[in-house]
Amino acid sequence: MGIDGSPEKPMTKRYGQFCPIAKAAEIFCVRWTPLIVRDLTFGASRFSELQRGVPLASPTLLSNRLKQLEREGIVQCANRQAGGVGPIT
User: Fold this and answer.
1) Entry pTM
2) How far apart are CA 63 and CA 67, in angstroms?
3) Fewer Cβ in 10 A, N or C end of the chain?
4) Percent of the chain beyond pLDDT 90?
């Protein structure tokens, strides 16, 4: 469910293939996601640090992207209440 209670929409249209390249494209070829992953790779560990790295992305969009990356097993969100984001797995 989305923040407003509506059904959550997938980040992108799925390819429906088991190819690793297709799966990676489903996750990483969404606006802002490569920049979020970049900042996490270079050490951003707090939500506010990620906001500074992608200032044109709204906090809601950033939060949704992080949740999707967490569901896909790409990141682990640690101490969500304090704004912490865990390492890329």
Assistant:
1) 0.69
2) 6
3) N
4) 39
Q: Which two tokens stand for residue 17?
A: 């293939």
* Alpha helical stretches, state H, 1-89: 20-28, 33-41, 47-53, 59-71
- As given in the structure block, the two tokens for residue 56 are 């044109």
CB 50 within 8 A of CB 62: yes
Q: Could you give the angle at the alpha carbon of 24 between the alpha carbons of 12 and 36, nearest 5°? A: 75
The tokens for 10 are: 């997938």
Residue written as tokens 């969009």? 61
Dist CA 69 CA 74 (whole Å): 5
Exposure letters 3-23 (e unless 16+ CB within 10 A, then b)? eeeeeeeebeeeeeeeeeeee
